[in-house]
Amino acid sequence: MRRLRRCKIVATLGPVSTPDEMLAKLFAAGVDVFRINMSHTSHEDLRGRVFALREVAKRYRRPVAVLVDLQGPKLRIGALRDTAVTLSPGDRITLDGDPTPGDASRVHLPHPEILVALKPTDTVLVDDGKMRLHVVSTTGHSAVCEAERAGVISSRKGVSLPDTEIAVSAMTPKDHADLQAALEIGVDWIAASFVQRPEDVSEIKAIVDGRALVMSKIEKPQALTKLDEIIALSDGLMVARGDLGVEMPLEKVPGIQKRITRRCRRQGKPVVVATQMLESMITAPVPTRAEVSDVAQAVFEGADAIMLSAESAVGNYPIEAVATMDRIAIEVESDAVYRSIINAQRPEPEPTAADAIATAARDMGDTLEIKVIVAWTSSGATAFRIARERVGPPIIALTPYVDTARRLAIVWGVHPVVTKDAEDVDDMVDRALASAAEEGFALHGDRIIVVGGVPFGERGGTNLMRLAQLPPE
């Protein structure tokens, strides 16, 4: 099951992709990480899906990562007396805390934290931005808003607040329950929705306590003002372009995607580009040319992973969508300009032994005809740092811990393998050579780089690099 690409593929599970045999087909087609959206998943279904994915891993003898995506706070207006009202430009409507069904003059907003936070000139978007209001005046208990364009407001529609930071946790009671269920089952990554500030990440990481890695979804404009701090606290990021494109002008999203991708690489954190990548393949067997270009641009930028949402969850062609992503990534990474783009974005190394060794491995890989870099790692940190360099050769991560191997399945260029820890330096080199051959990355006479740390078994101690060669045939 050696992949022929560095960029990884994340696929969302849903009604069409949950049968056990379909999971195996999706993995064989190229999926590295399976996303479970807790907005549509019960705890019982979560357990069943994770168990089925662990069986797929046993069948193929490869680590399969599970990413659980928490729903996050869902902000909605209350009920309307006539189900919906039509507003014209300039019409005013009051948002308040009165639970009485609303009309054309007022509507219930069952979120007092929003009413307290709203300020004059703030924008309020209803129903994915179909109705756009701006706040005229506030009292702390109500807000008078004016319609910027004609539209309809319907009962229970979602509310987005691109200008307003709400002083409330990004974790709802449902999220707390879902998170505990996911941790008990032993999932690998937790995606935190609607992160606004570093404190949101700290809160969830304190609960997770190292039992999984935490991925912050960037879908709120407020998160962009504190992006570097959020990246530093997170284990990875997701560019959630769907909600981000609702709360910000669409034309700004591509530039934001590039900035997030590059800043994540600078800090050595994996980044996933998500939403509508092959949207037309929900109903069509082939994508549009624009969608192919969109996927390709994410790969050219060096994203760790690209994600399918509805395409694999409810679409008519889930296998074809995965295979299409796979082909696009392979083609991009073999393109003549790919390596020049990747190299132009190289970050400066941090003044640490691990970064110095990762940089040296990269330079040696570029200078010599190196087939693969084999990294011994307990926590995964060594593989993360080597992947940050976007090295030329593929990376094999040898680890004695299956949870580390699964977590690394989302990281650019990393091929994780579970094996017993090395006994000494000679054993480390010998088994690295054997693994490079067994996994299909090197042949007789090929040279490899071996990276690790002594003493063995300690986390975070990368301090050794060896150049080794498989014996000639």
Describe this structure in words.
The structure is a single chain. The chain is an alpha/beta fold. The protein folds into three domains: about 230 residues, Phosphoenolpyruvate-binding domains (TIM Barrel, Alpha-Beta Barrel), CATH 3.20.20.60; about 80 residues, Beta Barrel (M1 Pyruvate Kinase, Domain 3); about 120 residues, Pyruvate kinase, C-terminal domain (Pyruvate Kinase, Chain: A, domain 1). It is about 35% helix and about 20% strand. It is built from 17 helices and 21 strands. The chain has an eight-stranded parallel β-barrel, surrounded by six helices. Helix 16 links the parallel strand 18 and strand 19. Helix 2 packs parallel to helix 4. It is elongated. The two termini are about 25 Å apart. The model has no long low-confidence stretch (mean pLDDT about 95).
Kindly list the characteristics that best describe this protein.
473 residues, Pyruvate Kinase, Chain: A, domain 1, 17 helices, TIM Barrel, M1 Pyruvate Kinase, Domain 3, 37% helix, alpha/beta, eight-stranded parallel barrel, 3 domains
Low-confidence stretches: none
The main β sheet shows up as: 8 strands, parallel, barrel
Could you tell me the strand content as a percent range?
A: 15-25%
Q: What structural category characterises the helix and strand content? A: alpha/beta
CATH fold node name of the largest domain: TIM Barrel
How many discrete domains? 3
Under the CATH scheme, which architecture of the largest domain would be assigned?
A: Alpha-Beta Barrel
Supply the CATH superfamily name of the largest domain: Phosphoenolpyruvate-binding domains
